[in-house]
């Protein structure tokens, strides 16, 4: 019995956009960035048990059992209206499950014949480092699950000595490089991108960098302005890397993010063309921008 607990926001049992092939994706609660463009702001913070969402839940799927603890959530009563997350004053979500590594293995086993791997995402999955490491180790040791690849979708902020501890049990990592310049990244996320660049270098060196994701927000992100410098750095430290361009859209965002300009097909295509002119070959554009 492995009782290390993960705080889980959501599990998607089949996804084809979170790494190679068909994957089960585990979204972990909690993030150390505060991106102004965040599409899932309710995954940023852990519930502080204020109980404010309890009275606003239309079908009473949330109950106060102990005022010092997050509300009790009844999935069978919930109608999925999202009132709780839209009103939560601290960008949290009362619908979090605490799931042990052993329980997660049981859940993954139900789908293991139909998927090629699992991906941990977030929030920022690596903030729950012990859970992720322990889960990946357990999958690799389980004869019925060891065929599954273990991927991480990350903002890249984990320090290199922690990546070192994950490297043997991780098969691939998708890293967000949300802006090239430190100051632009800081303004966008609240954090510098120094560790992100170190993460990309380290993972590429160990052949675990599956993809670098660029977020195109016209007039905000700076890839085209700094394309020569960025391209040269990527060729030096992450040669042959696959690049995914995510064009920013308003779908799912709230507050200040709605004031940011949306990326058009032309914006994402211009970035792709410029990357091609800088000798990048493996480039894709996400979703609506294809
Ligand atoms: S989810 Fe938000 S509103 Fe609900 S109890 Fe937790 S912190 Fe309060
Ligand atoms: S989404 Fe939140 S507010 Fe809506 S029914 Fe479910 S728990 Fe209640």
CATH topology of the largest domain: the name is TIM Barrel
Chain-averaged pLDDT: 96
Round the Cα radius of gyration to an integer and report it.
20 Å
What are the distinct ligands in this entry? iron/sulfur cluster
Describe the structure.
- The chain is an alpha/beta fold and 290 residues long.
- It folds into two domains: 230 residues, TIM Barrel (Alpha-Beta Barrel), CATH 3.20.20.70; 36 residues, no CATH class.
- The chain contains nine helices and eleven strands.
- The strands form two sheets. Strands 5-1-2-6-7-8-9-10-11 form a nine-stranded mixed sheet.
- A hairpin with an 8-residue loop joins β3 and β4.
- α3 crosses α4.
- The protein is globular and about 60 Å long.
- It starts with a strand and ends in a 5-residue tail after the last strand.
- The mean pLDDT is 96.
- The structure holds iron/sulfur cluster (2 copies).
- One iron/sulfur cluster binds next to α1.
